[in-house]
Amino acid sequence: MRFIELGQKGNNKITSVFITLSATIFVFFIVQVATLFIAISLSNSQGISTDLNTIIDQIGANTFLAIQLIPFAFALLTLFFCVKFIHKRSIRSLLTSRELIDWRRFLLSALVWTVIMGINLFFAFRFSDNIEWNFNLQSFLPLCLISLILIPIQTTCEEVLFRGYLLQYFGSSYKKTWLAILLSSILFGLVHAGNPEIDYLGYGALLYYILTAIFLSLLTVMDEGLELSMGFHAANNIFGALILTNDWQAFQTDAIFIDYSKPVF
Predict the structure, then answer these.
(1) Among 44, 84, 177, 184, which residue's CB has the most CB atoms within a 10 Å radius?
(2) Beta strands 131-133 and 257-259: pairing type?
(3) Residue 218: what are its φ and ψ, rounded to 5°?
(4) Selection from 263, 241, 243 nearest residue 253 by Cα
(5) Which residues of 219-235 are buried (b: 16+ CB within 10 A; e: fewer)?
(6) CA quadruple 221, 92, 163, 253: dihedral, nearest 10
(7) Which tops the pLDDT comparison, 156 or 247?
(8) pLDDT of residue 76
(9) Contact 28, 75 (CB under 8 A)
(10) Cβ(164)–Cβ(3) under 8 Å?
(11) What is the mean pLDDT of residues 130-137?
């Protein structure tokens, strides 16, 4: 079967989909609130602020990044559990139509996108006064550990949910690949509507998220698996956490470079 058709396997009733999505979202937010509360308590701060920069100052950039990423691990496990025991499907069917996950595809995609971003950064750093060297070994080492372990889990969770589970569900329900891609991509954009990038760049950034999701969905459908989109997404976010950051995006880290340019879409 084609990858997008694998949602036809097992129990794909609407009630099962509702339970799976509800459980995944519920676990994500419960873990997120719990980890943030624990971090704030251990930092001896007076209450939990709603301001992003204040929270980062209270608990530290690395701790805040970990808090952002840890819930995705629990959400991914919940999604896998529901697919296995509620939908009665194999976990592999969410990831690829191949007999085994092709990690070479993952690595190739990650490498290509990292090289492209690296070339772009090279010229931006060379010809712009707004990008500055920001390397601090003491904070970079834990950042590196957090990023290389947790960010691939975060991006895999998003890919499995939107380009795997939902894309397959819409594809099986409506029998139209273009509609499945569009619906899953719009949902991907909407869940990022609360990101600080929207506040600074406007709703054009929301369109960027949706178009990126369409691109990744096309990779998934044309290549019959999530490997390419997973590699692209992981490389993109790791680069944003380790190599180049700024003081207004969702990932605010002690990266090697920091961009002080005015936010422009």
Answers:
(1) 184
(2) antiparallel
(3) -65, -40
(4) 241
(5) bbbebbbbbbbbbbbbb
(6) -130
(7) 156
(8) 98
(9) yes
(10) no
(11) 92
pLDDT tens-place string over residues 178-236: 999 999 999 999 999 888 888 888 888 899 999 999 999 999 999 999 999 999 999 99
Residue with tokens 């369109």: 207
Structure tokens at 56: 């980062």
Contact (Cβ atoms closer than 8 angstroms) between residue 58 and residue 40? yes
How many whole angstroms separate alpha carbon 195 and alpha carbon 210? 14
CB 133 within 8 A of CB 254: no
Six-digit token pair at 214? Answer: 């369409």
Pair of tokens at residue 13: 């009733």
| Closest C-alpha to 139, from 68, 63, 71 | 63
Residues 205 and 218: beta-carbon distance below 8 Å: no
Instruction: Give φ, ψ of 50 to 5 degrees.
Output: -95, -5
Count of H-run helices and E-run strands, the chain? 11, 3
| The model's pTM | 0.92
* Structure-token pair, residue 159: 């890919």
Model confidence pLDDT, tens digit, residues 37-75: 887 777 666 656 656 667 777 788 898 899 999 999 999
Helix ranges (DSSP H) in 90-226: 92-95, 103-127, 137-158, 167-174, 177-191, 196-201, 204-223
Q: What are phi and psi of 242, to 5 degrees?
A: -95, -35
pLDDT given at position 53: 67
Cα(49)–Cα(156) distance, rounded to whole angstroms? 29
Phi and psi, residue 245, nearest 5°: -130, 180
